[in-house]
Design a protein that fits this description.
The protein has about 210 residues and is α/β, with parallel strands linked by helices. The chain has one domain: P-loop containing nucleotide triphosphate hydrolases (Rossmann fold). About 55% of the residues lie in helices and about 10% in strands. The chain has nine helices and five strands; from the N terminus they run E-H-E-H-H-H-H-E-H-E-H-H-E-H. The protein has a five-stranded parallel sheet with strand order 2-3-1-4-5, with helices on both faces. Helix 3 runs parallel beside helix 5 and helix 4 runs parallel beside helix 8. The chain is globular and about 55 Å long. Bound molecules: cytidine-5'-monophosphate (C5P). The site of cytidine-5'-monophosphate has 14 residues, from helix 2, helix 4 and helix 8.
Length: about 210
């Protein structure tokens, strides 16, 4: 089974995807980390984030062993990832890794922006997660402070709004809900309740399938 979790609020601390994967004993891939990893290599090299040739070369040379690097979590890297991810050739370079991951048994949960629409259009369950940007800004700020970073909530909010806008309006794999995705608004849900709601969606979709 493949579960696709997309949406502006698909990732975050204690990610829904990770928890859902643990619940079903599936593998989990936070695909934002892949774009962040490409961006980080370019940032560290002082390279131009829009240098397509270089970004594609970096994308092909990624080492998944490094996806757990906490330095990938910062706002700066997230913002850079959002720029790099607009390059169609970079996205294309990362497709086969993601599809391969999704296809391996016993099942997988992938979270990102284009999983249900582009990477795994035949995913068994698609969940599109949204949350009030003000709530997301508060959560991200607290996460950053928890990591020991300085964070200004107003600046975090501005960054979130700018990134969502860029993700939604880019030509390549824009952020949008698949037609068959189920919406989950977690503005007023804590992590536990969000996980519970996602499991309920998975079970409802599975039960619906079995009736057909
Ligand atoms: O989810 P996260 O904040 O880690 O993603 C960072 C950026 O990577 C997003 O703002 C988005 O531009 C890009 N991304 C993407 N497609 C995905 C996952 C992330 O374009 N599947």
């Amino acid at each position: 089974m493949i579960i696709a979790i997309d949406g502006p609020a698909a990732s975050g601390k204690g990610t829904l995807g990770k928890r859902l994967a643990a619940h079903y004993k599936f593998r989990h891939l936070d695909t934002g980390v892949i774009y962040r990893a490409v961006a980080k290599v370019l940032l560290d090299a002082g390279a131009d984030l829009t240098d397509e040739k270089r970004a594609v070369a970096v994308a092909y040379a990624l080492d998944p062993e490094k996806f757990g690097n906490p330095a990938l979590k910062t706002q700066e890297v997230g913002e850079a990832a959002s720029v790099v991810s607009t390059i169609p050739a970079v996205r294309a370079a990362l497709i086969s890794f993601q599809r391969h991951f999704a296809g391996e048994p016993p099942g997988a949960v992938l979270d990102g922006r284009d999983i249900g629409t582009v990477i795994c259009p035949h995913a068994d369950v698609k969940i599109f997660v949204v949350a009030d940007p003000y709530v997301r800004a508060r959560r991200r700020t607290l996460e950053a402070i928890g990591r020991g970073e300085a964070a200004d909530e107003a600046a975090v909010l501005a960054d979130i709004l700018k990134r969502d806008e860029r993700d939604r309006n880019r030509a390549a794999a824009p952020l949008k809900a698949a037609d068959d995705a189920v919406l989950l608004d977690n503005s007023h849900l804590d992590i536990e309740s969000g996980v519970r709601a996602a499991i309920d969606i998975v079970e409802a979709v599975r039960a619906g399938r079995q009736r057909i």
